[in-house]
């Protein structure tokens, strides 16, 4: 799986989690800062989106792939993103014939203490 | 008293050598009595889907996050540090590849510690929007300054 150009701008890279599912890792850096010392909300949202799409592509790859289009995204910002590495992973709540419901969480030191979470709906276009 | 959105954006971007919004090339575009517009110029490294050349949603969320944030300061005519509590975005249609995306934001209400905003992203025609956004902000401690009637 290849990440889009925007993931490169974020400095994000793809890792494989223990369960074989994709995990997106983003180091702290000048290009993702908002207020001094904290991640910008848009950079966190972008990371969550990259994680959600990676999870969806991973699931769809098993059935031969499909095009996905975002319908909407709701992001909750729970904690300030500090000067640490941020990880994000997507979970597919439901993979339907036309719509997929995906959740993504981003965390720093402790996965049980997320800095942000998002719910996304994607339109799926299978060939 | 008035708050200059262009100066507010410049201050935001200069406080930390630019940060994410400067890296994305976000700049001031226009304003009205109760709205502000920022611009996100197209760049190939903002692409989220290489097959279609369509922008990733991250840069559009970043644009709308900053625009709605400035709309709150415009409403209270002051700068108040605050954090985004939540942001919801509906993608009405893909932005046209190569086009600058304009983010128009307005503040609906500033309560004691929460501010409510909405915004529209478009690529030239406000009547043909790319995305619709609702975002809320919160001051981490204390309250927002009172809005003059």
Automatic annotation (TrEMBL), chain B:
Keywords: Hydrolase
SUPFAM superfamilies: Thioesterase/thiol ester dehydrase-isomerase
Domain of life: Bacteria
Organism name: Sphingomonas citri
NCBIfam families: unchar_dom_1
InterPro entries: HotDog_dom_sf, PAAI_dom, Thioestr_dom
Name of the protein in its database record: PaaI family thioesterase
Family annotation (PANTHER family): 1,4-DIHYDROXY-2-NAPHTHOYL-COA THIOESTERASE 1 (PTHR43240), BLR7284 PROTEIN (PTHR43240:SF7)
Domain Thioesterase as annotated: residue spans: 53-125
């Amino acid at each position: 799986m290849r990440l889009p150009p925007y993931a490169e701008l974020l400095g994000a890279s793809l890792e494989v989690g223990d369960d074989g599912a994709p995990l997106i890792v983003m180091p702290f850096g000048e290009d993702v800062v908002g207020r001094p010392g904290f991640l910008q909300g848009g950079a966190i949202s972008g990371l969550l989106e990259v994680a959600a799409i990676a999870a969806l592509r991973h699931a769809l790859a098993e059935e031969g792939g499909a095009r996905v289009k975002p319908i909407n995204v709701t992001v909750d910002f729970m904690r300030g993103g500090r000067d640490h590495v941020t990880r994000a992973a997507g979970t597919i709540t439901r993979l339907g014939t036309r719509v997929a419901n995906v959740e993504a969480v981003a965390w720093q030191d402790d996965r049980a203490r997320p800095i942000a979470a998002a719910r996304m709906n994607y339109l799926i276009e299978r060939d | 008293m008035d708050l200059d959105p262009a100066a507010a954006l410049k201050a935001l971007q200069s406080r930390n050598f630019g940060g994410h919004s400067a890296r994305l090339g976000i700049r001031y575009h226009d304003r009205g009595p109760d709205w502000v517009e920022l611009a996100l110029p197209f760049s190939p490294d903002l692409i989220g889907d290489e097959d279609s050349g369509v922008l990733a949603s991250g840069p559009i969320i970043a644009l709308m996050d900053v625009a709605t944030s400035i709309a709150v300061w415009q409403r209270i005519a002051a700068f108040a540090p605050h954090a985004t509590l939540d942001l919801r975005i509906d993608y009405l249609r893909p932005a046209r590849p190569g086009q600058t995306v304009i983010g128009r934001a307005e503040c609906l209400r500033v309560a004691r510690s929460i501010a409510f905003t909405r915004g529209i992203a478009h690529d030239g025609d406000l009547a043909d929007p790319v995305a619709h956004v609702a975002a809320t902000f919160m001051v981490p401690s204390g309250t927002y300054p009172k809005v003059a009637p």
